[in-house]
Design goal:
The structure is a single chain. The chain has 8 helices and 12 strands. By secondary structure, it is of the alpha/beta class. It is globular and about 55 Å long. The protein has an 8-stranded parallel β-barrel, surrounded by 7 helices. Strands 9-12 form a two-stranded antiparallel sheet. The chain has a two-stranded antiparallel ribbon with strand order 10-11.
Amino acid sequence: MEQRENKYIVEVCCGSYYDAKQAALGGAERIELNSALMLGGLTPTVATLRLVKEQFPQLKVVAMVRPRGAGFCYTEEEFQVMEEECRDLLENGADGIAFGCLHADATLDEEKNQRLLAIIKGMGREAVFHRAFDCSADPFATMERLIELGVDRVLTSGLKPKAMDGADLIAQLQARFGDRIEILAGSGINVTNAMEMIERTGIRQVHSSCKAWLTDPTTVQNGVSYSIASGDQEYQYDVVSEELVRGLVQRVYGA
């Protein structure tokens, strides 16, 4: 496992090269690199990944492989693209891949997950099962099976919309499985609650968006709107804040 004794890990969820730069400047050691975070995070472009690795070689990058929004039950056509994306990202420097495939009943699609794992492990990289885990009917059985399949880390909010609401389950998962797999808590984690999550659950890794907003004045013109937010944020889009990353890193690493 990557973490060292008495060492916490802050992972920042990034949706662009700009985001990754802010995360690196703020002191993050690892990011999850996506595109389209407003859809929950989709596969990033290879160009984005290459630029991040060229400019910030010290930054560990886990790249998302997810072809669309909504859930995680993929057609064979969608999955063929996922396999190609997985190879492309690894060949261009990704340190790991975040993925998750489910059947329509939300059980693990073992055949598809194993196909991705074969690619990831065949290149000696990390396999991270993302929050598809939070669709589990039986999180304990699912975690056990992911360990058996060879997954290195699971990102979870404890089957709740926000990780703090799922902290009791995260603590149980950590107690039962934490010596066999890395458990990463994410969703709603920030500088105000990261240490509470760590102390309540015993985990050593947190995942945060460290979100701020920038304005694009061309978002609404001539009655045509491309807004992704509403109200006062109608002209804005979300980005990672270097300041928020630094605050979180200092809070967690200084503990």
